[in-house]
Amino acid sequence: MGKDEAAERLADFIREMLPESISKGLGQKNSAEDIRNHLSGIFSENEQLQIKVGRLSELIEIGYMLSGEVRLDNLLLLILEKSKRLMNAERSTIYLVDKERERLRSIIATDLEIIRIELPIDQGITGACAQSGKIINTPDPYSDSRFDKKVDIETGYVTKNMLTAPLWDKHNKVIGVMQVLNKREGTFDKEDERLITLLGSFASVSLENALLYEAQEKMLEMFFESLAAAIDAKDPYTAGHSARVTEISVGIAEEMGIGGNELRELRYAGLLHDIGKIGVRDSVLGKPGRLDEAEMHHIQDHAHQTFEILRRIPFTESLARIPDIASHHHEKVSGKGYPDGLVWEEVPLGSRIICVADVFDAVTSNRPYRDPMPFDKAMSLVEKGAGEDFDPEVVVAFKRYAERVLRGKMSAE
Ligand SMILES: [Fe+2]
Predict the structure, then answer these.
(1) Are 61 and 154 in contact (CB under 8 A)?
(2) Overall fold of domain 235-412
(3) What's the gap in Å between 272 CA and the centre of ligand 1?
(4) Å from CA of 331 to ligand 1 middle
(5) Separation of 390 CA from ligand 1 center, angstroms?
(6) Taking the model in full, what pTM does it have?
(7) 362: CA distance to ligand 1 center in Å?
(8) What are the extents of the domains in the chain?
(9) 218: exposed, middle or buried (C-beta count within 10 Å: 0-12, 13-18, 19+)?
(10) What is the mean pLDDT of the chain?
């Protein structure tokens, strides 16, 4: 078999092996070199295409992931991490526009840590992007007069190139700026600009939701704090009681390793635990000295009233236990408490925590008819109640917290 014939057979074999879309392009090319050139052209095109498809599918995946996150901090970290990877950049930063303070607050994701910084809204390339709403591609920042070297100086980082894109809300207002720094190969190109714009639009939708969620959360918290202050103001002897009980309860819970949503639920329950006192007559609430039996019943009814008031609030699922936790803060593990005489685990853990904080704050507070109990005496009262009035595990956590925080605070007063 001659050389040409062998080449022809090889070409035929390759034609049969390859999908028609590729083999068609081979035409009459028969020499090994012709075939190699043709195929390597296809493969390199294919490689480029694969990279593009890879980036696009990553972008779609990011879109899905972002839509599932409503907590602002988590969301920012997720966007930072994903944008850094997708844009093949060393660093990524998100700046959120704080209109009231005319500043941009930001989180920077490096390979090693998370850094938070703040910038004036009218400075640097970031400020220019926030104000113009235009994407800014900066292949050489140090030759751009708008570039603010301060961040590099503060963070000890050298910016070689950067791409800065605005984040829009649905009312066409810039809510933030997304920035990627130091592309790992070369500088950012037109394709990167298109990609960051797409990523930015995904990120904007999620960020807007998260910002709204954060604002609602803040509003709810301030509303509960105001309510707590109003409850405390009704009782002349208990100014600041609900806020202090909440602080102590949170301290105990943290000692017990409680965090996240459970802690948030406990904090709100702490603020609202005495809301039922709204229904207690002022003459009974403010009566100095001993109460008769009817007055005692009337005042104890506040626990049940707390439940009656709070159960009307359509709490979201994550806060649904607030009425239950708040209204059982006078239960004792022995079953001798009120309103339901629950025992041990029947009493919600949050209520067992608030119960200790409530008693400690009550005995150490000033009353016109008695002096406040000193720290050590109050502590031994709580410890004596372990297993009868209080959950012993809560008492242990309370003691750790109280020794660390409350002892010093009380002696300073
Ligand atoms: Fe109470």
Answers:
(1) no
(2) Hypothetical protein af1432 (1.10.3210)
(3) 10
(4) 10
(5) 15
(6) 0.69
(7) 10
(8) 3-52, 70-200, 235-412
(9) exposed
(10) 86
